[in-house]
Amino acid sequence: MANVVDATGKVIGSAPALGFPESDAARLDVIFRAVHREFANARAGTAATKKRDEVAGGGRKPWRQKGTGRARQGSIRSPQWRHGGVVFGPQPRSFVERLNKKERRQAFLAALADRFNNDAVTVLDAKDFSLTKTREMAALLFGSAKASREAPSTLIVYRRGESQASDIGRLARNLRRAAVTDDGALDVKDLLRFERLFFTLDAFNEVRRRFELDKEPSNGRP
After folding, report:
1. By 3-state DSSP, what share of the chain in percent is helix, strand and coil, each rounded to 5?
2. What is the Cα–Cα distance from 202 to 123, expressed in whole angstroms?
3. I want to staple 77 with a disulfide (CB 3.0 to 4.6 A). Which of 17, 48, 55, 158 is the partner?
4. Which of 200, 176, 169 is nearest to 7 (CA)?
5. Tens digit of pLDDT for each residue in 4-35?
6. Distance in angstroms (rounded) separating the CA atoms of residues 11 and 1
7. Which of 131-148 are b and which e, b meaning 16 or more Cβ less than 10 Å from the residue's Cβ?
């Protein structure tokens, strides 16, 4: 269960936890692969170095083959030379990893189940949201503006297109221990990176609806 609070921080009810299967809360393996995928897919893969044949210059042999007492050299762009080519350097590549839809869903639910099991989820009824000051937002999230400096890291999740979204983002952007995202951008690493989750009621209901509708029929199988 998660407490539902109003804009003053007063508890006005409770929101039911999602129906997590027993096995989901312990799926550390799929959580690991989901987080690894999210970080890998964010990599640009554009690191590149030039090989010997790609470096400009070096077409003339720097000195004759024999008789100088020095080691033989064929080009000043060989890898052992300064400004020469790079051996086995990075080349542009894709770091994209794939994870099927069922496993992505399991990882998300398992991470969210962990937040619920640790009483780290709060739901905000933003229907009458009228806060105008950052210190008021700090009092709602952390109890006071002073406490917000050392408070647990908190992620505020609003529903995309929600009327109060811009106000929530504006009030929270200067809080050191708070961040804001929408329900569509919420991913597994965000669920695990922050110590507390603060959903608006619309965002919470949207997450519930999404996963209740996405449940696959069992077809009589366990």
Report:
1. 35, 15, 50
2. 9
3. 55
4. 200
5. 888 878 888 887 766 555 555 557 889 999 99
6. 13
7. beebebbbbbbbeeeeeb
Distance, in Å, from the CA atom of 106 to the CA atom of 110, rounded to the nearest integer, reads 6
Structural domains of the chain ordered from first start: 2-43+100-213 (3.40.1370.10), 48-94 (no CATH)
- Read off the pLDDT of residues 101-116 as tens digits, 9 standing for 90 and up: 999 988 998 898 888 8
From 67-71, 95-99, 144-148, 183-187, the region with the lowest mean pLDDT? 144-148
Nearest 5 degrees, angle CA 64-CA 68-CA 73?
Answer: 50
Please indicate whether residue 197 or residue 209 has the higher confidence score (pLDDT): 197
Residue 213 has pLDDT above 60, yes or no: no
- Please check whether residue 122 is in contact with residue 94, taking contact to mean a CB–CB distance below 8 angstroms: no
Phi, psi angles (nearest 5°) of residue 145: -65, -35
Residue 159 has pLDDT above 80, yes or no: yes
Interior CA angle at 151 toward 145 and 155, to 5°? 100
What pLDDT is recorded for position 2? 83
Q: What are phi and psi of 148, to 5 degrees?
A: -65, -15
Pairing mode of beta strands 11-15, 2-5: antiparallel
Q: How many helices (H) and strands (E) does the chain have?
A: 6, 6
Encoding tokens for residue 202? 């619309």
Distance CA 202, CA 167 (A): 15
Report the SS3 class of residue 157: strand
